[in-house]
Amino acid sequence: MLLAGALAIGLGVFVLHAASAPPAAPERPRPPPPSSLMIHSDTRFSPAFYRSQLDQDAKAFGIPSPSWEEITQPNAYFEELKTKQRLRLKAPIETRHLRVSLEIRKAVSVMEGQTINADHLVLSIENRTPLYLAYRIQTSVPDKRRCSSKGEIPHNAVAMGPNETIMRTECLYRKEEAVDINRIEVMEMPALSAYYVSRLPPNATLYDPRTFTGHVGFRGHEGCQQTFSWREIKDGVDSKQFEWRDVIDFYARHNCSEYSFFKTYRFRTDSNAPLPARPLD
């Protein structure tokens, strides 16, 4: 009996304490989803939303907004070098749009845990035109492993402005070292398109990590978050379903924070094709 009474008293105290305790804190509100997800798909793919996005982005970048004709017309594409050429010091290669030369310059490198200012083979890429360009210069060196500790020069690895010269490191300098130019591709485009593609994070699917790791966008604008699958793009490139120019042409017309490349998109040749492009079109 005494034990039962004690249990009853203990239970009563527990109930009174529970009744007087403050209620549990409410669940913290969850952050809102990204603004792009809050926009209904039909709205995002409407011409009105697309045009307003172009104007807003141009204003944010501090550049003139392109006309509808500029953004819808096909971008001029050029494969300016198709066969491998050896590039040596003081022997530049000139194409319709670019002048590419090899120089020896100092750059900060990390070797065996020590930071040093070392001689590098540096590729100088000069835009010979008054146009904005997307570009890809694929190079190779005799031994990539000898370049693993090279330094980087910040540069836009995807796009360049009118008459701009870009410098990128190729490898640490060694006597008689050379660089081979394997392919040069160029695409002319409006200013906003160049800003768009420069926000695309370079990836080993389209660019060599040896040369793109110093990438920075125009005026330091941040790159897009990963909203698409590089695996799908890699599979498509590897199987020759599409190429660099298809991916770049898509992002030359679409803000990569809002739209994602899809595997059926091809380099635009019809100025009357709908924009924004969508997988069902």
Brief characterization of the structure:
The chain has helices at residues 2-20, 35-38, 41-44, 47-61, 68-72, 191-198, 209-212, 230-238, 244-251; strands at 77-81, 85-87, 93-94, 98-111, 114-127, 132-140, 159-160, 165-172, 179-189. By secondary structure, it is of the alpha+beta class.
Radius of gyration, Cα only, in angstroms? 27 Å
Strand content is 15-25%
Number of beta strands: 9
* First-residue to last-residue Cα separation: 83 Å
Report on this structure.
The protein has one domain (35-251). Strands 1, 2, 6, 7 and 9 form a 5-stranded antiparallel sheet that branches. Strands 3-4-5-8 form a 4-stranded antiparallel sheet. 27% of the residues lie in helices and 24% in strands. A hairpin with a 3-residue loop joins strand 3 (93-94) and strand 4 (98-111). It has 9 helices and 9 strands. By secondary structure, the chain is of the alpha+beta class.
What characteristics describe this protein?
5-stranded antiparallel sheet; 4-stranded antiparallel sheet; 281 residues; elongated; disordered N terminus; alpha+beta
Detail the topology: elements first, then pairings.
Elements: H1 2-20, H2 35-38, H3 41-44, H4 47-61, H5 68-72, E1 77-81, E2 85-87, E3 93-94, E4 98-111, E5 114-127, E6 132-140, E7 159-160, E8 165-172, E9 179-189, H6 191-198, H7 209-212, H8 230-238, H9 244-251
Antiparallel strand pairs: 1-9, 2-9, 3-4, 4-5, 5-8, 6-7, 6-9
